[in-house]
Amino acid sequence: MKLAVKKGDIVQVIAGAQKGTRGAVLALDRNKLRVKVQGVRVQTNYDKQEGIFKAEGFVDYSNVKLVETVAREKKKAAGKTKSARKS
User: Fold this and answer.
1) Burial class (CB in 10 A: 0-12, 13-18, 19+), 38
2) pTM, whole model, 2 decimals?
3) Phi, psi of 49 (to 5 degrees)
């Protein structure tokens, strides 16, 4: 399934405890249809080497709406030139 949001886009949470919060998309899980948004669902984690740190958790894709897209460069299709075709 193709998702409407991509990494770096700005989205707004439309459901749940964080409703109304805006943030950039940090990661996508296309298999489970989940999105990691900056500043939303912050969880405290513990690692033996790093100690205690806070990280964002995933939010369901249906609970966010696209607000702003990031401009991306379009890839130019590789094609043959006229001189190469005549050879």
Assistant:
1) middle
2) 0.74
3) -85, -40
